[in-house]
Amino acid sequence: MKINGEKILVIVGPTATGKSGIAVLLAKKFDGEIISADSRQVYRGLDIGTGKITKKEMEGVPHHLLDIASPKRKFSVAQYKKLAEKAIRYIVYKKKKLPIVVGGTGFYIQALVDNLDLPEVPPNLELRKKLEKKSVVELFEILKKLDPNRAKGIDSKNPRRLIRAIEIAKHLGQVPALNFKPSPTNYKPLFIGLDLPDKELKKKIRMRLFARIRNGMITEAKKLRKQGLSYKRMEELGLEYKFLAKHLKGELTKSEMIEKLNTAIWQYAKRQQTWFKRDKRIHWIKTKKEAEKLVRKFLGN
RNA sequence: GGUGGCGUAGACAAGUGGUAAGUCAAGAGUCUGCAAAACUCUCAUGCGGCGGUUCGAUUCCGCCCGCCACCU
Asked: Which nucleotide is the nearest neighbour of A178, by CA and C1'?
């Protein structure tokens, strides 16, 4: 089940910095296959709004963990981790190639690369409904009784986290023996980070948003609705789909949607920067050449 | 020209004679379970300007400036 010391390449960075492109380039150069680490691109049908790479852009490089889930159902980190590990095993042992993990979902990458202890626990809607009525203070008390270990580290003011923690604790039994210390790393990763100065990134995000609209993002949302994706669920998907749903429901005009969405994407990009900033393993690069050099050295050992 | 109303942070906006709510934006963060999510922190010595009344004015008065509405 475990992979020991397998070299993997990990490409991270905020949205709109060109991760997909450089990943394909490196995959071709170093004989790799790509594993997406994007919490929304796993869903089928969310293409334009998530900026999913097209067949043509893949240039023949196999991509894993895209289009593997229905947007109607919730997909979780635990599932991601499991499937990504499987994909890595397949790429390393069957294909004898270099796995390249690429994406902006820092938490997914952390779960995978640092081997977080995540037994699969499906959402319990009934329980959630009940818990949602309680205050954070009450929730925190409940969690303390159920899983004092988890309660110690949790953000006690965050209802979302508290509810999920309670859900997990209940599912696993009275005192879950989760391993909260980082497990030994199973992979030998090389982290490459892509970023841009704020001003440039802002501009790129805006241009890309207009391009997405031109390319039929609104039609895509309508199609998803027709296929039975509720507006409520669409809003849960965040960013483009959240604002698209509000627009289709008539709560926002098209231009309001564009402006609010643009702001939201920028805020998201900053959150990604905050996340990746603290991982000192990341080599922040400016050019493709730098990336190539790093990878060559990495594989040479 | 007249009459009335308004003028509070980048935007919206509440408010009081006793020392400026809130929301958004912006910035900084958190992170082992919905992570494109959720959460935390910071952000007006100053309420259009100048005077006056007052122990004290953003709040009352006067003038000026600007905007809006209506009237001539």
From this structure: B32
